[in-house]
């Protein structure tokens, strides 16, 4: 039996209303202790409070009547380890095999990240515009499009849900601002690290300036002093830690830390 056009329009209208209602803020079925700052009453004298404690999650807070005993017996089995294989001198899977794949995946990941970032900024712009609408003089016209309202003639309900909606939007915008600040700081830190890594790659050793012929005119003790100062500025000074047990630890950025015996001071 085919439906009439009017009946079909009603069905489509009801479906769209149900979908739109699912996207609205619903403050009727929330925890009042969190959103409305309700008071918790604790009575340790009355028998009612002990028999009916506060249970926000209902049946999930109750202890199950039946307990399940799991069999935790450990089974032991003795097996011989396989013989050690010969070492393979040549790597059968070189990095060059996967470089093309990694470049393609990295490009796709960057594209998806930019798409998600653009979608996120678009949603934040919508929230900012919604917050501006709630701050206007005709906010009561825009509130039903954002929040579920039971009685539009109830001024107390409108004011309370307007404040709750603005609070939720402000919390979301604050989280987004926090994420944006942390993302910018992380990007700046990564850029600094990449620049430092590039600088370290350019200056691999202290003899990088030997290609300059003017170095040959500088005395060796002056050149050694300049390179030592550059090394200290870049990697830090060598240190010595006295252990007070006749030994000391010597650390040098270019050498392996060693433990040596202290020499007796000549009197």
From TrEMBL:
| Recorded superkingdom | Eukaryota
Query: What InterPro entries does the database record attribute to this sequence?
Result: Sas4, Sas4_dom
Q: Which Pfam families does the record associate with it?
A: SAS4 (PF15460)
> Could you give a GO molecular-function term held by this entry?
histone acetyltransferase activity
* Ranges annotated as spanning the membrane: none
**Protein name per UniProt:** Something about silencing protein 4 domain-containing protein
Q: Which residues form the Something about silencing protein domain?
A: 91-188
Q: Name one GO cellular component term.
A: SAS acetyltransferase complex
């Amino acid at each position: 039996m085919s439906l009439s056009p009017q009946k079909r329009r009603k069905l489509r209208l009801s479906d769209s209303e149900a979908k739109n209602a699912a996207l609205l803020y619903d403050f009727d079925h929330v925890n009042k202790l969190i959103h409305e700052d309700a008071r918790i009453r604790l009575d340790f004298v009355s028998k009612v409070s002990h028999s009916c404690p506060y249970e926000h999650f209902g049946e999930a807070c109750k202890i199950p009547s039946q307990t399940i005993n799991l069999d935790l017996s450990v089974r032991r089995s003795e097996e011989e380890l396989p013989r050690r294989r010969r070492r393979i001198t040549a790597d059968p899977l070189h990095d060059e095999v996967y470089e093309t794949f990694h470049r393609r995946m990295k490009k796709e990941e960057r594209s998806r990240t930019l798409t998600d970032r653009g979608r996120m900024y678009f949603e934040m712009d919508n929230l900012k515009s919604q917050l501006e609408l709630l701050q206007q003089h005709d906010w009561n016209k825009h509130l039903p499009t954002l929040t579920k309202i039971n009685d539009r003639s109830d001024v107390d309900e409108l004011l309370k849900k307007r404040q709750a909606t603005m609070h939720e939007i402000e919390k979301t915008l604050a989280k987004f601002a926090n994420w944006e600040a942390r993302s910018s700081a992380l990007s700046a830190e990564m850029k600094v690290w990449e620049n430092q890594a590039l600088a370290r790659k350019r200056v691999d050793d202290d003899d990088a300036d030997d290609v300059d012929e003017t170095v040959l005119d500088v005395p060796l003790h002056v050149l050694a002093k300049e390179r030592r100062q550059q090394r200290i500025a870049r990697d830090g000074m060598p240190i010595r830690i006295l252990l007070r047990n006749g030994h000391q630890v010597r650390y040098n950025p270019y050498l392996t830390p060693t433990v040596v015996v202290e020499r007796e001071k000549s009197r």
